Amino acid sequence: MMTSMEPRVSHPRNTNPIRQSCQHCFLLVKWIPVVFIMSIIAWSYYAYVYELCILTVNSVLDQIIYLAGYHLIFVIFMWSYIKTIFTDVGGVPPEFKLPQSLYDRLNEADSEGTTRQLLDSFARNLPVSNTTMNGAARYCEKCYHVKPDRTHHCSVCRKCVPKMDHHCPWVNNCVAFKNYKFFVLFLGYGLIYCIFISLTSLQYFVAFWKGHLEGMGKFHILFLFFVAVMFAISLGSLFSYHCYLITKNRSTLESFRAPIFHSGPDKDGFSLGRYNNFQEVFGDNKALWFLPIFTSLGDGLKFPIRSMTCYEAMGNTQQRTGCENTVIEMPQPCV
């Protein structure tokens, strides 16, 4: 295999103070959606715990039940959200990068056929099965490497991201292989959080309309109910959609543009059956399935498609349900 070198084109560091200031401003602006969500959550905590449970609910037993249930959901919801935000989504390892000599030859190539031949020759020893529309190895002209399967370049993060699902401004991060489980749990627990608030505040929302609540706290309860219902509807649709994607072993990008194999485009090219698809995201340890702890199978770079048995392809010695008759093919070199 060819040894990799550092980036082929050296760009001088930009010392323009105006441009640097704009870059810093852009970095700050990207955090605005996260700050907005955090502000909504902080206000909902105040409105629910203080205005509703402490000042409005009269029954001590109800207060205990409401506060215990709320804080249990709140902790795991925030845990999932923070893990989604701050998990490093990783990048492409050095062996996929083009050496300087090959990059120079690509620049000198006088035809598309020559370029394809050079890239395919380099990719021959790499575990890739996805190709471009014309069957060539996928190459990132910004990062100067062959793209591993399911890897895409994020223009916001300015790098190629393994098994990229999408870039989410609400977490200021890409949703990809390393934090996809956290993102799905964030949606699920966010939905439960909103439903819990809606159900437990419903009777007090009704009491507001009947004029039985007094003081300024009633407006907090009114808006708390409306906001919880609104977010529950939004999160419910998004959570359902990602549950569907998990059962199909697709990313959001792949649902809109099917990955291309040597045999052609195939939206279900990575699907191993519902249970195995679920395990690929949530792992084998059932005790950790619904905790925001990383348990996804694989390395985010190589994925089984249809040849050896699924548990062999996934590197798991424990046979999985539905694997007996499943035949999948491990990534083959581009030729």
Q: What would your notes on this structure say?
A:
This is Palmitoyltransferase. Keywords: Acyltransferase, Membrane, Transferase, Transmembrane, Transmembrane helix. One of its GO terms (cellular component) is membrane. The chain has 335 residues and is mainly alpha-helical. Helices cover 49% and strands 6% of the residues. It contains 10 helices and 8 strands. A hairpin with a 2-residue loop joins strand 7 and strand 8.
Tell me roughly what share of residues is in helical segments: 40-55%
Summarize the helix and strand pattern as letters.
HHHHHEEEEEEHHHEEHH
Q: N-to-C terminal Cα separation, in Å?
A: 15 Å
Strand order of the largest sheet: 1-2
Radius of gyration: 25 Å
Q: Would you count the extended β strands for me?
A: 8
How large is the count of helical segments?
Answer: 10
Residue windows where pLDDT falls under 50 for at least 5 positions: 1-13, 307-335
* Relative strand content: 5-15%
Oligomeric form of this entry? single chain
Mean of residue pLDDT? Answer: 85
Shape: elongated
What profile does the largest beta sheet have?
A: 2 strands, antiparallel
| Structural class determined from secondary elements | mainly alpha
